[in-house]
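Why does residue order matter? Because the sequence determines the fold. Keep that principle in mind as you read this record.
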Amino acid sequence: MQILRNKLYELQMEEQMSEISKQRKDQVGTGSRSEKIRTYNWKDGRCSDHRLNKNFPLQQFLSGELESIIQECIFKDQQQKLADMAQEVMA
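Structure:
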């Protein structure tokens, strides 16, 4: 009985560790150039956020006025969470 309990515990720990590893890898990514977050275009005075597919005035970033960008990120994250929840309900 003890051996079975140990095997089940090991399996459960492996599942948990693989889930944590997957989440960490999703957050970090590969670090390749294609995963860029922002491009700062000094000539045109704009900052392109590639996660949001939106452009923002470069001066806004330089002066530290980031509230609108932060709100956009929060909004997109909430949309993604709602889509994930809807997909779970449909499954």
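The longest helix spans residues 2-28.
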